[in-house]
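Minutes, project check-in
Item: structure for the 206-residue chain
Input as provided by the requester:
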Amino acid sequence: MKNTLLIAILISQIGWSQNNELGLTLFKFERNSETFNNHFEPKVILGGYSIRHFNHLQWFNTVEYGENELNDNCNSCADHIAGMGLMKELNLKSGIGYGWELGMGKGLFLTQIRLNAVGGWSNYSGYFSGGIGGWASNLNRRYISVGGELEIGVGYQFASNFLVRLDISSSLLHSWTKNKYPLNSGIVETNKWSTNFPRLSIGYRF
């Protein structure tokens, strides 16, 4: 009984509070190692996220899905490979973070930093040609990936508790790849990376 009372008093002194945030991920600029030329491409993403706030601490979860056509040309590359690729992806993330809030106007300016565990499935396909050997082929390459991600971001919470977030992230993943084109078929293990700059989300805090 004394221990329970002591814990209750300690929490009240710290001012520990909890609230939730639910939102949608809509859009991101991303470059990743699945493409040949690794440049930033816009992607429309359908995703949902949740954040459990414990004062400054955060517990973050999200699911994202996208199907985007990517212009995978690089005229300035020495080994010039060209083509249009279709990227299908399903991403799962869960992580912890730390956030700050600063009063601005009638709302709050938000900043946060997070470390996320990441898992996902992706499929990159298309017709590509070029390279030193001058080859041309249909590509159909699948990935199952797990790894980690560092994410930082800013946002603004309006007086109505609706908010907008812009996040930048970088991830490093270990992947199992399924290739279906003549140069390499079968399952191989590889490392994969991606960078988002930025990702746009909207949400509501309650």
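Outcome recorded: The first helix runs from residue 2 to 14.
No further action items on this chain.
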